[in-house]
Amino acid sequence: MKISLLKVVAGCAVVLLPFLLVACAESGSVDDGSGEIYDRVSALAQQQEDEAALELIERTVLFDSLESPRAGTASLLELKSRLEERSGRYCRALETHALLDSCCSDQLPGPVRAGHARSYARLLADFGRHRQAADVLLGLGTLSHADQLYLARWYERSGLVAEAAEVYRRLLQARHPAAKLDAASGLLHLSCAYGGDTFSRPAVYAVRTIERARKLLDSPGVASPSAVMALRRAARSLLEAGEYSADASYLLFKALSHARRSGMEAAVALLDGESNAVLKGDPEVYDRTMSWFQGHGMTLPWAMMTVRQSEEPGLERTERLELLRKGVRALSDELPAGAAGPTADAFGTAVGRLGALLAESGMYSELFRLDEEMRCREIVDLVHRKEAFSLSGQDIALQKRIAGISRDISALQRRAVRYYETGDGIERLDELGELVSRKRGELNAALTGLGSRYAFEAEKLQPVPVTAATIQRVLRPGQAVLKIVPAGPWLTVYYITHDTVRVTKSGMTAEDFLALARLVTGHLQTGGELGIQTLARHRARLELSEAVAGPFRAELGDLETLTVLSSVPLPVQLLGENRYLARDLAVTYLASARELLWDARHGREQAEERRISFVGADSLALARTLKISWPGDDIVVTWRPYEEQELDDLRVLLLMGLQNGRGLEQVVKEQAEYRRGSGGAEWMTLSVFGAPGAGR
């Protein structure tokens, strides 16, 4: 009995419709490229007529059974996946690869089958599915030098650091000097990033990396692209280890020389800029390389070089500030939300440096916007990962199309980051940039077509930072917002009411703030029922009270409700000088002003039956996802562990309190006040996650 082709490919959530089978037998097997249909498709592909080629495949390549696909189906599906990938349709290409892998990839000739597996694995990695990508690559059996490098990186991104190290150790036994160098520099990177008992000190691997680099420089194949980029990767690992800038500079200089000899134009520009940034810092070289990048549409390396130039000593503050602004703005546009790896780390560092400069310079409005931009990137990542974008039933096809375009953009951006970090494919960055621009145009057109009916859903995919002035318009007398922004050596706190904005800046570093917040939350998590009772004199609580709430003591005494905006989990209701703030006012919690505005507008879109969800303080990403997905639901953050029965009892009491039409935050405060001395303190370990009064 034949099984019809109806398959959902994980990760893209798109149903593949059954293909109808049309025989191509009159032109012979298509596997060797001799079939008439294959020839016609190939001719269209060579003429860059991808749309026509894909349409011809979908009309002709066709089978009605997974058990017995016809001759030629595999070759045409393999060609289809390449055309889809070339045109930026990564979701569709991934589906086609998965289909080919499940039904007939064994019909492909050996080299073509290996190429399919490599393309499939790299696409999976572009979608962030690194473990699955590694499994597909391992199916090849014999792995090349490049395969093993990808495998190690994907293991690392999957959290399998020991497995990544094992791949590098095996690669040390390779014959080619470039492979040996990549293995040594890979181990150096892992030792710097993870340390622990698994690795020796970074200095040990640094010496081995330098030794392997010397052997590569003495070998006859040193001018090959793989050798040039191995030298660059080794230099990057040495810089990561610190104290090896002279060795890194030398390797970059030698790589630059060999790239020039081999005519690697894009690599020459990249290495010219990077070698200059390590030691010389010549402004003319910066200008030359960045002009080249701009002229060739290579925005990602241009942005990274701009950030590197902002680190040069001797710059005026205004010049440093402008360089950081440009670099951060470009990186925010080029990097996918939720990106991880060296480039994403550099972006985070640049954002911290820009924030510190803005705070130091008193540019508080711009600092507010910068922090909101970062929170908006987190929102986009949550929407993509948790599939929080949804339309009604009759528009499900449009929902899938929009979600697919969004995933295509993220995958294209991840591939661009891979090209930049590894150096392999650096010359194709401009092509990827053009595809991203085209896809963004498609997304904008699709979202515009949604109209006012789905305005909130469209905003989820393209959230816009909110200003303090916008927040003021949704606040009533008696309500205030406390926004906490740690940046470099400064902790900036905004106090916003309907008619006032006050800002204070203290000398608490971002690292200290994060550490103190963790101490407070950790004390509540591990202190059991006595946690809140012993928190009052805790050093971390007292220091945070002084820095966060202390400057606004007088104003806080006149409030009914305070909403805290912070990307760092912190139970602000338990701060205060002589008594907890929760004793005197209701406190709600959110991560960003954008989410506050959304909840103030949409939080009253209540379901017929009111629902209350409890989320642990260590799972605030889940709370954000729930609130974005179902703004009408009530969410309560628990700052200490609760048993299920305790939460059920709390839910009943809260639902009873809501029957009088009050906000959930007022019910929590009244319960704490009503039960003072008999469990009331436990109610202060609850925070309503939402805007004040939302959900009524």
UniProtKB/TrEMBL annotation:
<protein>
    <recommendedName>
        <fullName>MalT-like TPR region domain-containing protein</fullName>
    </recommendedName>
</protein>
<keyword id="KW-0732">Signal</keyword>
<feature type="signal peptide">
    <location>
        <begin position="1"/>
        <end position="25"/>
    </location>
</feature>
